[in-house]
Amino acid sequence: MADLFNERAQNWDARTMSQQLSAAVGEAIRQYVPLHPQMAVMDFGAGTGLVCTQIAELVKNIAAVDISEAMLEKLRTKPELQGKVACFKQNIMQHPLDQQFDLIISAMAMHHIADTDKLVQCLAAHLKPGAMIALADLDSEDGSFHAPHIKGVYHAGFDRAALTQIFAQHGFKDIDFVTAHRIEKEEKNFPVFLLTATKSA
């Protein structure tokens, strides 16, 4: 499978949009998730580790999961993540990790997965009973956020009510949304939500 982010990885961290988004999502996670020093975390679609860096010092360790080797290579170079983050280049929907976590975080990865229901089922299986998820992505939009030539985009954002149903069906409770950020792009405003939920015990 081609690495769709191979070219974009080189300048990803320098993009203002990437910096602002990761800072806002990180701040929202710190505000709405009770992080603690014994916490084992998975960052699904971790990319270059921009969100990892927002919480790394507050948790025990982070498993950075991504299918892009180019993005993970950038993550590995960051001194603030050394000894704290382990990288896993794999599709966990096909090859799950042999570990369950206290928290799964994710930022702007869900719209790259075709089957949302299967993804939520997979993430639930990677969580301990009573563990939390904190997932950021776009609210429903008109399809103009991504350029038409961008590959690997399966959703033009998400409807919050529909997502609530999917998460509830897979054993999550206390499902809540906040608007974590707004991306200004080509004179349009694209809200980014943070969904938090707890896996039933």
Automatic annotation (TrEMBL):
Concerning Pfam families, the annotation shows: Methyltransf_23
Q: What is this protein called?
A: Bifunctional 3-demethylubiquinone-9 3-methyltransferase/ 2-octaprenyl-6-hydroxy phenol methylase
Q: Which GO terms describe its molecular function?
A: methyltransferase activity
What SUPFAM superfamilies does this protein's entry cite?
Answer: S-adenosyl-L-methionine-dependent methyltransferases
The record's Gene Ontology biological-process terms are: methylation
- Superkingdom per UniProt: Bacteria
Transferase as UniProt keyword: yes
Species this chain originates from: Candidatus Venteria ishoeyi
Q: Which InterPro entries match?
A: SAM-dependent_MTases_sf
Q: Which UniProt keywords apply?
A: Methyltransferase, Transferase, Ubiquinone
Q: Establish whether keyword Nucleotide-binding is in the entry.
A: no
